[in-house]
Amino acid sequence: MRYSFIGLATLIALTVGGILVYREITAGPPVVLPAPTQIRVSPVGTAFSPDGWTSSRTLMLNAAVPAGIKAGLDVEARPEGQAFSDTPTATESAAQAVGSCSPPAQCLALPRDPTIAVRLPDGEYHLQARLHNGRGVSPWMAYKRVVRIDTVPPAAPRVSSSTNPDPKKIYHGSALAFAWQSSDAGSGIAGYSYRLDTDPKGSAREELRIGGTSVKLVGLDTGTYYFHVRALDRAGNWGPNSTFPVRIDVTPPGLAHVNFNLFQFDPQFDALRVSFAVTRAATTVRMGVYRQSDQQLVRLYKLTHLTKGQTTSVAWDGKDALGRPAQAGSYEIYIRAIDRFGHSSVTGWRDFVVDYRRIVVSLSQQKLVAYDGNRVLLTSLVTTGNRALPTPKGTFRILAKFSPFTFRSPWPKSSPYYYPPSKVQYAMLFQAGGYFVHDAPWRSAFGPGTNSQLGTPGSNYTGTHGCVNVPPDVAQRLFAWTHVGTVVQVVA
Question: Rounded to the nearest 10 degrees, how much is the dihedral formed by the CA atoms of 275, 277, 281, 285?
């Protein structure tokens, strides 16, 4: 009977101009459903940032429905600051509610709860939702958070460098400083990613590295580098990459054509000389001589303003900075070349020996004296060359040592100076051309007069072919005591 009354009232209203129908429509459907117990909003393909920004224009809104109710969903989305009008801006019927998500997997967890896809332009919004079905609607329930949408990436940063401002110029520092500025009209900039590489087409990776707008990079080697930077906004949009090229040359001057005249020397007779060229212009070159046993600096030499390829030499006289003779022993030499930008390289060598051992051979006395500094190690009679094949006078050094050694005649058999192959136990070469200090098993006499007679060398009194013959025990001691480089003085 009640249903018939309503139909009659509607019919009457229609006949009098539709006043009742108009009032029924403006009043809206009856509020007979309970409100959703929860509203959940998630962006499609991404997530909300902590402050509510997303880079997705499509939102999936899901309402939790009380048990036993089948309902569709109405949503009203308004710009933040604009009041709700309680008029849906998107709606989903109960029949369409299940499986209406895109992608569908977002709704399958709650198949009885209606889900609706809402697409909005960039901006900040507040939302409310209600349930509806054939019986009526529920009260509106507001989503408690503000939804912020920003799909526009930040602008490409404007990059500059305080250390390398001109990309076309070569700079000489190994520390690079970069600064940049970017802008974002939407969510604002959350931070930046940067990368330094040698690829002009490279790009900063999509990983947040820094919140500020400047960075300093140190310890770089010579080369052309590219600094890449890009901005990330708070909605998760990565902006385009900006690249700033820098060219640096921090290669220090080095050494070339290094040569040492000696590796063992007696400062009383020789100086240790090193010659070299620099591979690049050097404002300063320092050469330090260090005692190898304790790394103590003994002598320092300083050269200035050497041009590329310029050859120079430094001679160490075996004395310290105060002019005192260096101790006998091993020494190291280091050379540091420095350019006008402060770039330097250092090169070192070891095992240079200062040795005050020397052998003095007196031709007039036919005598040999071995000295260790000022101390006499041994004295011995010797036999040297006769008048036809004299032993050369001068200051020499032991060039090589052999034990045993066989002498072979450089003269043919027809020569009065020929001798058959002759074996000795200890031979010390002191002058090119075959001049040795050595034992002579064929000789029994040494000393004055043993070289006085002319004739084929090899007998007790016809002298030698120019060598210095010593008794076997003396040869053995000298061989063990001397080094290559030991001075041999042959005096009148």
Answer: -20
The residue written with tokens 């229609």 in the block is 14
DSSP string, 373-412: TTEEEEEEE-B-B-SSSPPPPEEEE--EEESSEEE--SS-
| 148-205 pLDDT per residue, tens | 999 999 999 999 999 999 999 999 999 999 999 999 999 999 999 999 999 999 999 9
List Cβ neighbours of 279 (8 Å cut-off, separation of 6 or more): 253, 254, 255, 256, 308, 309
pTM above 0.90? no
Which runs of E-coded beta strand occur in 99-249? 115-119, 123-133, 136-137, 141-142, 147-149, 158-160, 170-171, 176-181, 189-197, 214-217, 223-233, 242-248
Of 388, 194, 349, 389, give the one whose Cα is nearest residue 262. 349
- The neighbour count for residue 419, using CB atoms within 10 Å, is 17
Model confidence over 256-306: pLDDT tens digits?
999 999 999 999 999 999 999 999 999 999 999 999 999 999 999 999 999
1 Cβ partners below 8 Å, 6+ apart?
none
- In which residue are the tokens 């005591």 written? 481
Structure tokens at 191: 């931070």
C-alpha–C-alpha distance, residues 363 and 455, integer Å: 18
Are the CB atoms for 79 and 123 separated by under 8 Å? yes
3 state DSSP class of 209:
coil
> In this structure, which amino acid lies at residue 48?
F
SS3 of residue 324 by DSSP: coil
Bridge-partner residues for 159, per DSSP? 180
Residues 6+ apart with CB under 8 A from 330: 291, 292, 293, 350, 351, 352, 353, 354
Q: Which two tokens stand for residue 181?
A: 């500025």
CB 317 within 8 A of CB 260: no
Most distant CA pair in the chain, distance? 167
277 contacts 310 by C-beta, under 8 angstroms = yes
